[in-house]
Amino acid sequence: MTLCPCGSGRGYDECCAPLLAGAAAATPEALMRSRYTAFVRHDIGYLERTLAPESAGDFDRAETETWAKEAQWQRLEVRGAALAEENGSRGTVEFVAHYRFRGKTFAHHELGVFRKEDGRWLYVDGEINPKTAPRAAAKVGRNDPCPCGSGKKYKKCCGA
């Protein structure tokens, strides 16, 4: 069994192969993973077929083919996936594609946007290097209970 290039941990024949052969992806993440696999396998036709109509005009087949063939695809890291609408017709996938191109190492970080049309997921567009929400830490006053759960005041515990 050959592992699928998409990093799912499943075999290629049961993971991305059916999608590249024409089966519909069940989720935006499955489509994203299959598109990465299409880059690895140089299946430019699949990349073109899985684009939303409004994105197809920006697709440069020759440039994409050169990139796919010259890159050494290392791994795909999926950081998160979510359905964005109640009816499940839009979704997002945050991912990082790691590869080497012309002797340099790259990490393509993107928040991809996907839409379901006629039962098939399509890639719409994406935000490169998306900003994550800053972590918010609650302010603890000196006389507030310590957040560690000791029952002591913050100033007498972790704030000392």
Short description:
With 160 residues, this protein is an alpha+beta fold. It is built from five helices and four strands, in the order H-H-H-H-H-E-E-E-E.
Please characterize this protein's 3D structure:
This protein is of the alpha+beta class and 160 residues long. The chain has five helices and four strands. The chain has a four-stranded antiparallel sheet. Strand 3 and strand 4 form a beta hairpin. The N and C termini lie far apart (58 Å).
Chain oligomer state = single chain
Strand arrangement in the largest pleated sheet: 1-2-3-4
* Low-pLDDT regions: none
Distance between the termini: 58 Å
| Main sheet attributes: strand count, strand direction, barrel closure | 4 strands, antiparallel
CA radius of gyration:
21 Å
Number of helices: 5
| Counted beta strands | 4
Task: Return the average pLDDT rounded to an integer.
Answer: 92
